[in-house]
Specification:
Elements (H helix, E strand, L loop, with lengths): L1 E2 L3 H13 L7 E2 L18 H14 L2 H11 L6 H14 L10 H20 L6 E3 L2 E6 L6 H11 L5 E5 L4 E6 L2 E5 L13 H13 L7 H7 L17
Parallel strand pairs: 1-2, 4-5
Antiparallel strand pairs: 3-4, 5-6, 6-7
Length: about 240
């Protein structure tokens, strides 16, 4: 089965596994490599079927399990949708299986979830805005699809300003206005819109001011702020090696 990567699509896949007896194999459309043998079904959304599965999951799964599913689904690994789909089936068979870490499938999905959760947490401190006209803009290049997880944090923290956080790799963006946000897909931003302004220079000055030369520890710095994120952090441009 092929889907758009959304939670709605995932729940449609659950429905088709149980009702239409489809194999629990699921790929995002953009990840699937077509061949001459397989003829995958492209899932379409049905509100009634979606709500039916959603209610069943909310009734039988605890909050931790539902959160784990949300994070794991957004992992960049092409196999993550299939693993999450099979995880849901396993939990329906017995909700107590959700946290059985002796189970290889449970451990795989839990690991995926933790990686996305960790990156989401990190990026709450790794976003740097530039003022473009009346809108604050930031570019990020995360490993995973984390915009839905960091958007509420920034919308609440900066509810009085309009901003865009652009995931350049996935060409998606969080658009926030007056504390209300949405994620838009298939967006290509002009790099000129991500130009520097005075706020970028202030970040550099602040970083330089608080730094204590005798305590500089590049290894520790990279553990807490992985080097692959540094290209979008103006305060680190002098330390990238």
């Amino acid at each position: 089965m092929l889907f758009d990567g959304s939670m709605e699509g995932l729940l449609m896949a659950v429905y088709h596994v149980y009702v239409d007896k489809e194999e629990p194999i699921l790929y995002r459309v953009m990840d699937y490599e077509r061949n001459l043998i397989d003829e995958p079904v492209t899932l379409t959304f049905d509100e009634e079927h979606f709500q039916r599965v959603k209610r069943s999951m909310e009734e039988r799964f605890d909050v931790e399990t539902l959160t784990l599913i949300s994070y794991a689904l957004n992992h960049r690994d092409p196999s993550s949708p299939t693993l999450v789909l099979r995880y849901i089936i396993r939990c329906f068979q017995n909700p107590n299986n959700a946290h059985n870490y002796q189970d290889e499938l449970i451990m795989k999905v839990t690991k995926l979830s933790r990686q996305v959760s960790l990156e989401s947490h990190r990026f709450k401190g790794f976003v740097r805005f530039s003022l473009v006209g009346t809108v604050y803009m930031a570019r990020i290049d995360p490993d995973h699809d984390i915009l839905p997880f960091i958007a509420p944090h920034f919308a609440e923290r900066y509810g009085d300003m309009n901003f865009i956080i652009y995931d350049a790799h996935r060409q998606e963006a969080v658009l926030s206005r007056d504390g209300q946000w949405t994620v838009k897909k298939d967006i290509v931003l002009d790099e000129k819109l991500l130009q520097e302004d005075s706020s970028i220079e202030k970040w550099r000055e602040y970083f330089t001011h608080i730094a204590i030369a005798s305590r500089v520890n590049p290894k520790a710095q990279k553990r807490s702020m992985p080097g692959r994120y540094w290209k979008n952090l103006p305060e680190t441009e002098q330390t990238i090696t």
